[in-house]
Amino acid sequence: MEQGQKIVGKEPIIELRHINKHFGSVQVLKDVSLTVHKGEVVVIIGPSGSGKSTLCRTINRLETIDSGEIVIDGAVLPQEGKQLAALRSQIGMVFQSFNLFAHKRILDNVTVAPRDVLHTPKKQAEAEAMELLRRVGVGDQAHKVPAQLSGGQQQRVAIARALAMHPKAILFDEPTSALDPEMIGEVLDVMTELAREGMTMVIVTHEMAFAKAIADRVVFLEDGQIVEESTDPKAFFDEPATERARLFLRALEH
Amino acid sequence: MSITALLTQFGDRYLAALWTTYKLTALSFILAAALGIVITVMRISPIRPLRIAADLYVQVFRNIPGAALLILLVYALPYLQVVLSYFTCVLTATTLIPAAFCSEYLMSGMNTISPGQIEAARSLGMTFLQMIKNVVLPQAVRSSVLPMTNLLVATMLTTALASQVPLSPTDLTGIVSYISTHAVGGVTAFLISAALYCATAVVIGQVGNLIDRKVRILR
Lengths: 254, 219
Description:
The structure holds two protein chains of two kinds. The longest helix of chain A has 16 residues, at 181-196. Helix content of chain A is 37%, strand content 24%. Chain A has one domain (37-50, 87-253): P-loop containing nucleotide triphosphate hydrolases (Rossmann fold, 3-Layer(aba) Sandwich). Chain A is built from nine helices and ten strands. Chain B has one domain (3-215): MetI-like (MetI-like fold, Orthogonal Bundle). Chain B contains nine helices and no strands. At the A-B interface, helix 2, strand 6, helix 3 and helix 5 of A face helix 5 and helix 6 of B.
């Protein structure tokens, strides 16, 4: 897909400033700073254990940080409480393991947060949800429960569920890693479509061809540090500037 | 006395006793479920003093014998200037104890919920209580129908404590002592009560199985 015509804004939506985090004595994020602008698709890649999922999860504080600052659309992310919930509602998240609510029908999975958090009237929430479910291609599954859907379908519902909150950005934490190979494409297609429509996205992924095609910016993370950052994904994947990125990409080829 | 003779003479009283037992059971179970839910939410809340208080509640009321609790309510509370009716004393005892068990069953029901669903709820901007209401409790309740069925039966059997205080009309166990003092009921009088308890328990069990099959969560 060509990303050439797309215009990325100058307005920062997510700002990470000097983030440090430890798991016990291991430092998993080392002074990480990253700004994601409106309409930008930032893809985070790196070896297993490099901290890329953790970085993604700190953005809405599913992981706490030891020091640093996270700013969402101009507001500093608070530690806990109602303000944190309010800011979280503005940032969507799609997980590796879908995490749909097992007891709720697909339609209710999508409407529950708009109705309870945003106080959208039931009819309107359901109409919007149906529209979103159709958009991601699972409109005919609306009255089933998650366990009756394939992994690819569940992940597309999860994307619709995130979209239903009208988020300012969506975080994707390895969204295709738990999928059977034949279902990866359908999820990536939906994400590509979102990117084209101008959604601000942060994507942690192992799908390098997809990363190269969709990214406005590639962030290469290793040992909890940003080693290389590039706004020219094609150049990065063909000819990375750092030796470590080169080694990582070469290792993937074999 | 034969069963027929007993039923002819005391049939009405058995019916009244059965009604007392059912009334106590239903009220206790509803109150215990409500209290059990509150206790459970406290046990998983982010506020530590609430967690400690609720854990303590469960430890105390899961481990206190019903008769001991009833004695405390009837004989000790008046020293604190609290005088409850006998019915209220029994109802309190048969509510406080099942509530502790109810909470234990809900806690194990919650263990069936994947942590990912909690993260999803939080990432959608739900507050703690919204998450409890929309995601945690509905699944915990639906996963604990069978233990709750057992709890309902156990609650009914616990209401036999009512036989230890003067109630009018008395309960299914109290009626046995009544008959023994007014006629020669012997074991037969007790067998009638036992049969009524058993029949009710069987019905509760069947209904519980039906509900469980209907609400079980596909995974």
